[in-house]
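lol so apparently i was supposed to do this last week
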Amino acid sequence: MTALFGLFLVIPAVVIASTGADTPFAPGFPSPWASGGSGWDEAYEKAKKFVSSLTLVEKVNLTTGTGWEADRCVGSTGSVPRLGFRAFCLEDGPLGVRYTDHNSAFPAGINVAATFSRDLMRRRGEEMGEEFLGKGIDVQLGPVAGPLGRVPEGGRNWEGFSPDPYLTGVAMAETIKGIQSRGVVACAKHYILNEQEHYRNRIDVRIDDRTMHELYLWPFADAVRAGVGSVMCSYNKINGAFACENEWTTNYLLKNELSFQGFVMSDWGAQHTTLGSALGGLDMAMPGDGGGPPYGALWGGALTEAVLKGQVPQWRLDDMVIRIMAAFYKVKSGNYTSRPDVNFSAWTNKTTGPLHPLSNQSSIGVVNEFVNVQGDHAALIREIGAKSVVLLKNEKAALPLNKPQSMAVIGNDAQDTPGGPNACPERGCIKGTVAMGYGSGTAEFPYLVSPATALELQAATDNTVFTNTTGNWNLAAAKAAASNASAAIVFVTATAGENFITLDGNAGDRNNLTLWDNGDELIRAVASVNPNTIVVLHTAGPVILEYAKQHPNVTAILWAGFPGQESGNALADVLYGRVNPQGRSPFTWGKSVKDYGAQLMFTAPNPALPSQTFDEGVFIDYRYFDKAAIAPTWWFGSGLSYTTFSYARLEIVVHNTTNPYQAAGGLTPPAPTYGTLDRTAGANVVPDGFRKISPYVYPWVSSSANVSGPASVSPTAAINGSAQPVLPAGGAPGGNARLFDVLYTISVSITNTGKVAGTEIPQLYVQLGGEDNPFSVLRGFDEAALEPGQSKTVAFSLTRRDVSNWNTTSQNWEIWDREKFVFVGSSFEAIRLNSTLPPPPASA
Ligand SMILES: *[C@@H]1O[C@H](CO)[C@@H](O)[C@H](O)[C@H]1NC(C)=O
Ligand SMILES: *[C@@H]1O[C@H](CO)[C@@H](O)[C@H](O)[C@H]1NC(C)=O
Ligand SMILES: *[C@@H]1O[C@H](CO)[C@@H](O)[C@H](O)[C@H]1NC(C)=O
Ligand SMILES: *[C@@H]1O[C@H](CO)[C@@H](O)[C@H](O)[C@H]1NC(C)=O
Ligand SMILES: *[C@@H]1O[C@H](CO)[C@@H](O)[C@H](O)[C@H]1NC(C)=O
Ligand SMILES: *[C@@H]1O[C@H](CO)[C@@H](O)[C@H](O)[C@H]1NC(C)=O
Ligand SMILES: *[C@@H]1O[C@H](CO)[C@@H](O)[C@H](O)[C@H]1NC(C)=O
Ligand SMILES: *[C@@H]1O[C@H](CO)[C@@H](O)[C@H](O)[C@H]1NC(C)=O
Ligand SMILES: *[C@@H]1O[C@H](CO)[C@@H](O)[C@H](O)[C@H]1NC(C)=O
Ligand SMILES: *[C@@H]1O[C@H](CO)[C@@H](O)[C@H](O)[C@H]1NC(C)=O
Ligand SMILES: *[C@@H]1O[C@H](CO)[C@@H](O)[C@H](O)[C@H]1NC(C)=O
Ligand SMILES: CC(=O)N[C@H]1CO[C@H](CO)[C@@H](O)[C@@H]1O
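anyway here it is w/ 2-acetamido-2-deoxy-beta-D-glucopyranose bound
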């Protein structure tokens, strides 16, 4: 009990001295109850009806996982057999269905970010959603906005999108809308500040309120506004409390300020207490097991007991289930109302196996039906693979290739992996070409077209003499192959992943920003003998490449990221000019790791209680390089094309009639309850004749449980179901609806001034003004496909939020009275046009 009180007192007591915040963060009790609203009303009404008909143990069943490997999916809840409602199936991950077959391996998040294409982001979400639905999955565990990418070595950055919160926010929203349009609930994860793998299970991240809002919370706000059905709280602590029992981040920010109406699930094992998590806003415990006797779980029977004792009020339990059911009903619309049965097992590739592998008492049955869900998705995978290639250098007209006389393809990263693309479980090796990182964010490849295969095929068509060497440490062989080739293409990699796999000493996070497997030496060796050396990078993020940029014999450099199953075909499309490169770097390429400012904490001074203050504030990636006046190798947003573009006529329209900003206010209704609970002990113990499977997690209380209080162990504020104030920046999903009013429309005219068709990615940056703001921040982008000589006007919408800062005192967004500028160009640095931004509409 002492421990419990300690936990509850942590948050209200926090004051971040280093950032000068003058008020302690608002406490987050009680946990806000869902109330429907914008986009949720119909789902909410259906959920109310369903939840009202459930008993206490049935409700608890839907909130608690049955245990790791208890059922067929990586996460499965209990079910409601009385009403014929099967258990929820939750499955990784952000780039495709994990742990099965006959599925696609899509390009990683970081690649779709590099396309800067809302259309491709959306379509990728739709096709992933179709695959999850086809396997009978209810919840896809993605997309990822945490890590955001505070540090470039972050092991899971590639699962997400970009260290820029605006780009990540757009990618989150489009991906979520895509997935959910196909009848599958998306999950915005890992909430929040899970920025590194080292110490992730206990690191305490100290953050100030303004940085939280302007950087890390931003893309989650977009996810909530897009209607995301679920959010996964992360492993780490934030300002002293674990993310899955953190009333500031979950209750106050997510459920109150952002008015999130869906449910919060724990990362696997990220729940630490029964009451702390329930009152701190958790709605679903995953995978459910992991607690002492008698329940073997922190929820399940333990939650039922806490409700019977009054330590968790009925309204809080009802709210958990309402949120879960509303998310489910919300996505079942249009052509996607059906709910196929689960027809795969995450735990075996065989047709039959134990139905409940965690138990030695399980019966055996058919667990894999091998349903093929790939559809025609290879086409989009190839398109994204090609359109995410970032051309970083292209000199002496090295690219596109045009029937070269000879070609040497050099490096293990061009090759098929011996034993097949899935030879290493969860991609925990680099023996051939790398097309995704490692860890739980992976999927099995149905096949993987290696670059060597695709290029050899092209060479045969063109009568190009093709040579191919493997063995990155045999530099003599590489030089011999390269020395006489008209083009020497060197493939190199640097991978990253999740910390349950350590690869070449890298425990998830990359230990450094250099290439793996002797890659830098390989490039140098080839470039020392071949004046047309083309470098292809399959990396998890930036690597140090200044030497290659400067090397006169390195004529071209392309970042291909983690492109998924069509890797070689997509790359060949770009190398041969079938696709004119249009990818733009979603991160900045520093000349050294120190140049990034913020650093990953590899060794904590106190490893038992690792803690790190994000005192760089919002200054990460390009914002930091600029502030510190450090020139990187390539800036955020960079990328070349085979054609050229000109920019003209920057015009700004102020939307003078926009309604004024209005702080939200008033009170919520009091907490509703649905149905009455039978609180007699007999109603909540396992029924006679029910055969339990040990150690499966069940919702029933043990027959010996004393279920009569005391309720007083829970803080009064946490069990108070009376009407609560709405926060000024809140009131609607994603925050105050007025934040998304468009205040300005900014347009430019773009012309293709070259000889081939191509797509420009114009980018809008805004200077908010003042030393405490970055020089400028991304606030718009578009794609303009143009034939030679063709012009097009593109328009960017600037919302109120886009030109606001977070005021920690008023707890609201405000447009500060500082002179503002807008910049339009083809990267953070390559600005073509600029203007002062007129004052906002008088009413604003
Ligand atoms: C809870 O779910 C489990 C697993 O699906 C099921 O066996 C059990 O009957 C459910 N309990 C209730 C009370 O519905
Ligand atoms: C539903 O499917 C039909 C037939 O395939 C199609 O014409 C229609 O556009 C689809 N509707 C939606 C909302 O996707
Ligand atoms: C299933 O097969 C894939 C290779 O296709 C392998 O990576 C995976 O480990 C296998 N899973 C199990 C549970 O055996
Ligand atoms: C089955 O597992 C239980 C623990 O869940 C253990 O006590 C029991 O000995 C096991 N039985 C067999 C036959 O392995
Ligand atoms: C590349 O070279 C290796 C080793 O000589 C060979 O096994 C492989 O078939 C070659 N790959 C291609 C695509 O030619
Ligand atoms: C170099 O390449 C040319 C044409 O591609 C060929 O004629 C010549 O024999 C090659 N020389 C060596 C040393 O391989
Ligand atoms: C960086 O890490 C990779 C992967 O472990 C390793 O191959 C490389 O040698 C390291 N670079 C340096 C400079 O230590
Ligand atoms: C570039 O390649 C040529 C061979 O064509 C070689 O002689 C020269 O030394 C190389 N330049 C550098 C800087 O390595
Ligand atoms: C909007 O207001 C600005 C001044 O803020 C003014 O210059 C402009 O003419 C107004 N536009 C319209 C359409 O009223
Ligand atoms: C923030 O809000 C407080 C209280 O409303 C106000 O006094 C202060 O001036 C605001 N700060 C800025 C920078 O506008
Ligand atoms: C803004 O544009 C003007 C020309 O209109 C140019 O002189 C100036 O350097 C530009 N400023 C920036 C920061 O790009
Ligand atoms: C599409 C399809 O084949 N779905 C099957 C999934 O598996 C269940 C059994 O678990 C079948 O009933 C479905 O037909």
